[in-house]
Specification:
Residues 1-22 form the signal peptide. Residues 358-811 form the TonB-dependent receptor-like beta-barrel domain. By secondary structure, the protein is mostly beta strands. The chain has 6 helices and 51 strands. 6% of the residues lie in helices and 54% in strands. The two termini are 21 Å apart.
Length: 848
């Protein structure tokens, strides 16, 4: 990290070096009410060149020949203004500053045009880059604490699911043969693998979270919503930001970004982020802590402006993660319906083993298989925007890759049950999107585009039994199970490959029937094709020709191979009616028919009584989604926002994930639930109470159930029952809390720190959610109890110069689970993904 910072300082030197000559620029600074402001600080960004306004609000500053450049207009109690100057103005520059605690009218680009978020007929939450930095929300898992409609579940980066309104990804272990229902976009580039949501943000400008289907606005079909993330762009005016944080558990995070002109038409930006932290769980077997953080990411961008109407941005990024982590801690033991000698407690007693602790929140493990969660993700993209007529034509071309190198202890104990469990994967994707957005007539505007993605995923996995496997696998009282070396070193090698291609034509119109009444129809045509290959072969263990011993080995692992190929087309669409009753009230209603493509199983299939794979499960039917929503966005009084939305989503052939009792089904398998319904209400609000106090909050009520699911997997406690499936119709969806909410506020006042004008502040944030099921079929043992956490920050911030604040997370040191999951083989023990305990530290930031 130290070397990276040295490189950034070097680049900053070259980007900020210019040759200058004198030329004066005049201006006037006032309030929004046209009252002159005296003693306003005016700075040429990236320099020490500054001036101060007189009692008439007037200033004169020497440009020193810098063109183009940016003027920063700073005054305590008012939002800093940035004025870009491309030529020496003939007349004085007029600047009207807005009071700092005036509610900022956030603009978004989700509908492929710049507009105020309160005017957009979509339920949408916006987190600015500054908000994310100030609250320590450096990844999606932290963002969910600010946007309670978002859920993220991650037992490791590969096994990560992101949901909005409890829909998007099947709950549980990830299967590469299914598409996520929540789109994840960075600067218009679609990231196909959910693992991207575990990476640190790099130099983010804004995060827009759209709720509900968005298939007529985005290239990849999104049935549940989308993350639309934009990064900070290169600027022709030199600038730089440096930030470093230090906290307990040796937490260290450094961020840096530099930008500036590289020529008359070329600008560059280089950004870096690195995070490290000691582990939060003690491994008594190794004597080291585990669940560390070790992330590094870098992003470079080049902006070329060949004409005033065309921008070309070439971007490249790479992020690496090398944690010793994602270890899960045994959270409890469920009695199953297997015979008494097959219960977990009886098994470990026979093996003379005890868990290191009966309390998961002692944060102690003794797992003997190393936990490794190494991943690399990166790519390149080329984005071209050119103005044509009344709109903009955009082309986004990208290539991306994801490398995954794991090691897991799927039995969660210090016993050699599963000595190896690792499925390294390499995924690559190519995407191309072309769209036009703009005004077509005086009454009609819209967006239309085409999208294509081609991706391949190759997994070469290994799972291997250890010396204790015989006792966990034992299914009879035969003494043959005790045959020395029968299962030790016995495992499977897996070759799993999937190639998925998708093409689409999409568009949405905005027809202004009147200035206040708009109708927005949208349409999408999709073609999807998936080809999958799966093969596993057994190896090792005791070499024998004894049919009885071979039969026992086959009960643990068996050879399996199958191929599948499927394609599908679909028409989907939506219609929205929006009515702006006044400047402060905007109401809308939406109906959408959406679609999630077919799925294929590429992680093994359960077998029938003859030991043959159930090939009818190889291909999973597409989801058919019907979505209804009404909402009102209001500004009831000055500097306030109060929005409410009610929604209902019905899904036929819901794609869900099943955790199988068979070890050979490495990460569970996909299946269809007949019908699912999710309905609820969301409310979000922001209020500026005074120039010193702001309050914001959000709450969501969600009721998600299986309307019909007759062939669901057995819950953990029913493992060993005489039936293989269970009717769970009417029960709750996994991962769906009935209630979730966030509440925060900030108290601030004008201050100066080391000569810098800014704000001293105290901010408090809280996040809470009610209990939820952590199993595809509701299990009384796999229920995550509700919890609430509180975070706070105290410090000083300035738009330029030095800012500093102290922070604390989970201040009350609440013990809570983020997820519960059964061990491989369903012997009864289950483990928890633990929420972080109390952490605290200090952050320093310096902006030029």
């Amino acid at each position: 990290m130290k070397t990276s910072l040295q490189n950034i300082f070097t680049i900053l030197f070259f980007l900020t070096f210019t040759v200058s000559f004198a030329q004066n620029i005049e201006g006037v600074v006032t309030t929004n009410e046209n009252i002159p402001l005296e003693a306003v600080n005016v700075v040429v960004k990236g320099t020490t060149n500054s001036a101060v306004t007189d009692n008439s609000g007037k200033f004169t500053i020497d440009s020193k020949g810098r063109l183009p450049f940016t003027l920063l207009i700073q005054y305590v109690g008012f939002t800093t203004a940035e004025i870009e100057v491309t030529s020496i103005p003939v007349n004085p520059i007029q600047v009207a500053l807005k009071e700092e605690n005036e509610l900022i009218e956030v603009v978004v680009s989700s509908r492929r045009r710049i507009e105020k978020v309160q005017d957009v007929p979509i339920a949408i939450s916006v987190i600015t880059g500054k908000q994310a930095e100030q609250t320590g929300a450096f990844n999606v898992n932290r963002i969910k604490e600010l946007v309670p409609s978002v859920q993220l579940y991650s037992s490791n980066p590969r096994n990560t699911g992101i949901n909005i309104r409890s829909l998007g990804s099947p709950f549980g272990l990830t299967n590469d043969g299914i598409d996520p229902g929540v789109g994840f976009y960075v600067d218009g580039v679609y990231y196909a693998r959910p693992a991207a949501t575990t990476l640190d943000f790099i130099d983010v400008e804004q995060i827009e979270v759209l709720r509900g289907p968005q298939g007529s606005l985005f290239g990849k079909n999104t049935t549940s919503g989308a993350f639309n993330i934009t990064t900070r762009k290169p600027s022709f005016t030199s600038g730089a930001d440096f930030e470093v944080s230090y906290g307990n558990y040796s937490f260290l995070q450094a961020k840096a970004s530099v930008t500036g002109a590289l020529g008359s038409k070329v600008a560059g930006r280089l950004s870096f982020s690195g995070t490290s932290r000691d582990g939060l769980v003690d491994n008594v077997a190794t004597g080291r802590s585990t669940n560390t953080l070790n992330n590094q990411g870098i992003r470079g961008q080049l902006l070329w402006t060949p004409t005033v109407n065309t921008n070309v941005i070439f971007a490249a990024d790479i992020t690496t993660q090398r944690p010793d982590g994602y270890a899960q801690v045994v959270a409890g033991v469920a009695p199953t319906q297997r015979a008494a000698y097959r219960q977990f407690d009886a098994i470990i007693k026979d093996l003379n083993y005890q868990l290191p602790s009966q309390n998961a929140f002692d944060r102690r493990i003794d797992q003997d298989t190393p936990w490794r969660s190494n991943q690399d993700m990166g790519g390149v993209s080329l984005n071209i925007d050119t103005k044509i007529g009344g709109g903009t034509l955009t082309s986004t071309t990208a290539w991306r890759f994801w490398n995954w190198d794991p090691s897991n202890d799927r039995d969660f104990t210090g016993l050699q049950v599963l000595a190896k469990s690792q499925n390294p994967t390499r995924q690559t994707q190519i995407t191309q999107e072309v769209r036009y957005a703009g005004r077509l007539t005086s009454k009609i505007s819209g967006v239309a585009g085409v999208f294509f993605i081609d991706q391949t995923s190759q997994t070469d996995g290994t799972e291997e039994s250890g010396s204790a496997q015989w006792r966990f696998a034992q299914s009879s009282t035969s003494s043959l199970w005790k045959t020395p070396g029968l299962f030790e070193g016995y495992g499977i090698k897996t070759d799993a490959n999937i190639r998925a291609s998708s093409a689409a034509v999409f568009g949405q119109l905005d027809w202004a029937i009147t200035d206040r009444l708009h109708v927005l129809p949208g349409l999408r045509y999709n073609f999807d094709k998936k080809d999958a290959h799966y093969a596993r072969t057994t190896y090792g263990g005791l070499q024998t020709t004894d049919p009885a011993l071979l039969a026992l080995k086959k009960q643990v692992y068996s050879d399996q191979a199958f191929d599948s190929a499927i394609d599908n087309t679909d028409f989907s669409g939506n219609i929205t009616v929006t009515f702006k009753a006044s400047d402060k009230i905007n109401a809308y209603g939406t109906f959408a028919k959406s679609y999630k493509p077919v799925g294929v199983n590429v992680a093994g299939l359960p077998t029938n009584s003859a030991g043959q794979p159930l090939l009818e499960l190889a291909v999973i039917k597409p989801e058919k989604v019907y979505h209804y929503e009404v909402g009102v966005k209001t500004s009831p009084f000055k500097n306030s926002i109060f929005n409410i939305a009610a929604f209902r989503t019905d899904i036929k052939d819901f794609q869900t994930n099943v955790q199988a009792a068979e070890l050979g089904v490495n990460r569970g398998y996909l299946a269809n639930a007949d019908e699912v319904r999710v309905q609820g209400v969301e409310l979000d609000a922001s209020f500026v109470i005074s120039s010193h106090l702001t309050i914001n909050g959000a709450v969501t009520y969600t009721d998600g159930i299986y309307k019909k699911f007759t062939n669901a997997p057995l819950p953990l406690e029913e493992t060993g029952a005489p039936v293989s499936f269970k009717d769970v119709s009417g029960t709750n969806l996994p991962g769906a809390s009935r209630w979730a909410g966030s509440l925060g506020g900030e108290l601030s006042d004008n201050a100066r720190f080391f000569g810098n004008a800014g704000k001293v502040f105290l901010a408090v944030d809280s996040y809470a959610r009610s209990e939820f099921s952590s199993s595809p079929s509701a299990s009384k043992y796999l229920v995550v109890q509700g919890y609430a956490i509180f975070n706070a920050r105290l410090g000083f911030r300035a738009s330029q110069g030095l800012s500093v604040h102290f922070w604390g997370r989970n201040l009350l040191n609440k013990d809570y689970y983020e997820q519960l999951l059964p061990a491989g083989g369903n012997a009864g023990q289950y483990a928890g993904v633990l929420g972080d305990q109390r952490t605290y530290g200090i952050t320093l930031k310096y902006s030029l």
